[in-house]
Amino acid sequence: GENVEQHPSTLSVQEGDSAVIKCTYSDSASNYFPWYKQELGKRPQLIIDIRSNVGEKKDQRIAVTLNKTAKHFSLHITETQPEDSAVYFCAASRWYGGSQGNLIFGKGTKLSVKP
Amino acid sequence: GAVVSQHPSWVICKSGTSVKIECRSLDFQATTMFWYRQFPKQSLMLMATSNEGSKATYEQGVEKDKFLINHASLTLSTLTVTSAHPEDSSFYICSARQGAFVGNTEAFFGQGTRLTVV
């Protein structure tokens, strides 16, 4: 089955700096890669996603890149702000049996942005 | 985005009793719902996939007789933790997807249920 590895597990940056979180996946058939942000005690919220037919996607300060050959994808946050502090999860899923399969999550990255 | 409501948000129960957690899609029909378990400072571990009108598909290592899942309608799935023990204490969270179409890939999460078994 699919296995998703996420690094680093913790990341501390200064406000205004950039943050990069990387994930690798094992199933070459995976075709959907979302990123979720989870604040303490709250539900995960989708912040950006990318499908396998696209190499890069950007939404304001957030961007995701995908390298299908290497089977890795990354989250880039520019001009970080204290409110970006949270745990970020990457995930992967594949089209299976006529529908999008379940999400397999990475272990998460705790991002701390220091003012 | 779509709204998924989970109830209760927290529950404390005695060891040996059963607890039911509800997951509702409020403004869309969810053909598929997922149940996850999350330990402190850890990732979301998929427990089972719940499909409306059919039996749930459990992940390896998850006891189907202990974690009963029912998806009786397109807007409601329930997880019942039977004969709960302290080691079942965890954060349980559901997610739902609108349908099987390629465009409907986003999964929306409920707010989670903090279960404490004493």
Would you summarize the structure shown here?
The complex is a heterodimer of chains A (115) and B (118). Chain A is mainly β and 115 residues long.
Structure description:
The complex is a heterodimer of chains A (115) and B (118). With 115 residues, chain A is mostly beta strands. Chain A has strands at residues 4-7, 10-14, 19-25, 30-38, 45-51, 56-59, 62-67, 72-77, 86-96, 99-100, 104-105, 109-114. Chain A has no helices and twelve strands. In chain B, strands 2, 4, 5, 6, 9, 10 and 11 form a seven-stranded mixed beta sheet that branches. In chain B, strand 4 (32-38) and strand 5 (44-51) form a beta hairpin. The model of chain B has no long low-confidence stretch (mean pLDDT 89). The radius of gyration of chain B is 14 Å and the shape is globular. At the A-B interface, strand 4, strand 5, strand 9, strand 10 and strand 11 of A face strand 5, strand 9 and strand 10 of B.
Topology:
The complex is a heterodimer of chains A (115) and B (118).
Chain A lengths: L3 E4 L2 E5 L4 E7 L4 E9 L6 E7 L4 E4 L2 E6 L4 E6 L8 E11 L2 E2 L3 E2 L3 E6 L1
Parallel strand pairs in A: 2-12
Antiparallel strand pairs in A: 1-3, 3-8, 4-5, 4-9, 6-7, 7-8, 9-10, 9-11, 9-12
Chain B lengths: L3 E4 L2 E4 L5 E7 L6 E7 L5 E8 L5 E2 L8 E7 L2 E6 L8 E8 L10 E2 L3 E5 L1
Parallel strand pairs in B: 2-11
Antiparallel strand pairs in B: 1-3, 3-8, 4-5, 4-9, 5-6, 7-8, 9-10, 9-11
